[in-house]
Amino acid sequence: MTHAEKAKVAIFSCPLDTPKTETKGTVLISNGEELKAFAKQEEERLETVFRDIANTGVKVVVTGSGIGEMALHFLNRYNLVAVKVLSKFDLRRLCKATGATALARLVRPPSFSPSFTPSSRVSLRFPPRALPFPRRSANATLLRPSRSGVTA
Questions:
Q1: Which of 85, 101, 106, 112 is least buried, going by the fewest C-beta atoms within 10 A?
Q2: CA–CA gap between residue 122 and residue 81 (Å, rounded)
Q3: In-domain check, residue 43
């Protein structure tokens, strides 16, 4: 998927991947069945999150961190466009341009959340040339890529 018309945008400041705990822990797996069950449970949780995001009507997911392989699989399955913003400052500019708030955890965006912002058109070309996002006013802001990422 390379573009989305009248897309709803969800912005996350966390990685699109399985959540990591704050403390280190060791999982003792004694046989192959336990390993399969652990991997299946992790996959089901991630699929549930992306299914919930897709069911809210979001078509574009923006992250300020990494995108895992399993997350890419579910993004493709649910026809979601993923955009990785390399700089936290560019992510802030994008939030300001769309009037959105970046969510700190990978969860379903609430419908009243400011990060649930409708966009008139999001165009992605490889390499990206321009990403138009609307402001709160009737004027649209054209975001152009720079060396450090996307600038307003």
A1: 112
A2: 9
A3: yes
DSSP 3-42: EEET-EEEEESS-BSSPPPSS-------SHHHHHHHHHHH
Maximum Cα interatomic distance, the chain, rounded to a whole number of Å = 60
pTM of whole model > 0.85?
Answer: no
Residues 95-106: pLDDT tens digits?
887 777 888 889
If one counts every other C-beta atom within 10 angstroms of the C-beta of residue 92, the result is: 15
Rounded to an integer, the average pLDDT of 115-127 is 53
133 domain residue, yes or no: yes
CATH of the domain at 64: 3.50.7.10
Mean pLDDT value across the chain: 76
Among 134, 108, 103, residue whose Cα is nearest residue 121: 134
pLDDT tens-digit series, residues 11-42: 999 999 887 766 777 778 889 898 899 889 98
Does residue 116 lie within any of the structural domains?
yes
Q: Residue 40: give the domain boundaries.
A: 3-18+32-151
Q: Which residue has the tokens 């699929």?
A: 47
